[in-house]
Amino acid sequence: xxxxxxxxxxxxxxxxxxxxxxxxxxxxxxxxxxxxxxxxxxxxxxxxxxxxxxxxxxxxxxxxxxxxxxxxxxxxxxxxxxxxxxxxxxxxxxxxxxxxxxxxxxxxxxxxxxxxxxxxxxxxxxxxxxxxxxxxxxxxxxxxxxxxxxxxxxxxxxxxxxxxxxxxxxxx
Length: 172
Known about the structure:
Radius of gyration: 18 Å
Distance between the termini: 20 Å
Helix content: 25-40%
Strand order of the largest sheet: 4-3-5
Shape: elongated
Order of helices and strands: EEHEEHHHHHE
Number of domains: 1
Strand content: 15-25%
């Protein structure tokens, strides 16, 4: 999974964690910055040029974390489907998508936490099969430890930002 993120200048200094994805088929993403004072010059609108391969995904999840920025996760719909139907883990595309989200150090663990929270039993089945654990896997007992092992940069002693929302957008 390719990772790229954008933080508008008013939130910080540029790049942060996650995968970016535009909400349109254009090759750049424009951020609307409100005019501070009526009658004054509008603020310059920054743009983000995105690689074509990020523009080719069937869907995207948009995830904003205060202090970290806006991240876009291509093909998130595959995880939505997998966490609803764990039998899909037998299909390579679903397995590779889950593995990519788990193992990519720049992808926020919050995405997997939110999916698993919907149905911890199904999440347990997904991860048991992904990790090939014959004795099983319990998201409630083992999930946080798995995230800490897979994403150490998120757990290196700094506090995690709080997520403010996820929006799923298919656009084909």
